[in-house]
Amino acid sequence: MKLTSPFSFLPFLFALLLACRPSVDPKAIEPYTGPINEAFEVNLVQSDSAILRSVLQAARQLEFANGNVDFPEGIQIEFYTPTGQLETTMRADRGYFLKDQNLYRGEGNVQIHNLIKDQKLQTEEIFWNQAEKKIYTDKFVTIQERQTLFNGTGMEADDSFSNYSLKKVRDSRTLLPGEGI
User: Fold this and answer.
1) Which residues contact 106 (CB under 8 A, 6 or more apart)?
2) What is the pLDDT of residues 10-63, one digit of tens each?
3) What share of the chain is helix, strand, coil (3-state, %, to 5)?
4) pLDDT number for residue 17
5) Beta carbons of 63 and 37 less than 8 angstroms apart
6) Rg of the chain, C-alpha, whole Å
7) Which residues touch 59 (CB under 8 Å, ≥6 apart)?
8) 179 to 1, 87, 110, 137, 147: CA distances (angstroms)
9) Can you give the residue ranges of every domain in the chain?
10) Engineering a disulfide at 170: which of 3, 81, 151, 159 sits with its beta carbon 3.0 to 4.6 angstroms away?
11) pLDDT > 90: what percent of the chain?
12) Is the dihedral of CA 20, 26, 30, 36 positive or negative?
């Protein structure tokens, strides 16, 4: 066999390489379940009729195919009054948005502060139902209201933390000078 061009053997070589390929069982391949999108320095603003309602900030956001979102480096949410005044801040070491439940979850060192009423909350896990404008937890909670500390397990409040209900109250006490959460 006489070759007329130095590249005429390439189709033969390509066919030979494809014939030597190992077969793969399609059932052995697992689908990818990791993030499909990653964003940095996230700043999501929610408004209603051009009135600022809330601002969500996170250093990093991971979005998954099922619509869930992970904020692995923490999350901070600010809530505003109808007149645009910053009313409440909420922060957590790690945050999640659960798409199928339309629910945010914060975990780790969770802190909520109502600046207008001077109320503070500390817990290890909190849920925010944006549609119902409600925050809640079943975990241990410490609430500071001015110079009094309240401890309990479980809490439910409006998302501005203006009105709350502490469940299973354990104790309360007056703060000593320099003390607080």
Assistant:
1) 75, 90, 91, 92, 93, 94, 95, 96, 125, 126, 127, 128
2) 666 666 566 555 677 777 788 888 999 999 999 999 998 888 989 999 999 999
3) 10, 55, 35
4) 60
5) yes
6) 27
7) 40, 41, 42, 73, 74
8) 94, 23, 19, 24, 9
9) 37-174
10) 151
11) 64
12) positive
Q: How distant, in Å, are the alpha carbons of 2, 29, 105, 135, 176 from that of 143? A: 89, 50, 19, 14, 15
Residue position matching structure tokens 């066919």: 15
91-102 per-position pLDDT tens digit: 999 999 999 999
Give the tokens for residue 149: 């500390």
* pLDDT score for 160: 87
Amino acid 165 reads S
Q: Which fold has domain 37-174?
A: lipopolysaccharide transport protein A fold (2.60.450)
The 8-class DSSP code of residue 22 comes to: P
Residues 6+ apart with CB under 8 A from 5: none
The reported pTM is 0.78
Report the distance separating Cα 103 and Cα 137, nearest Å. 13
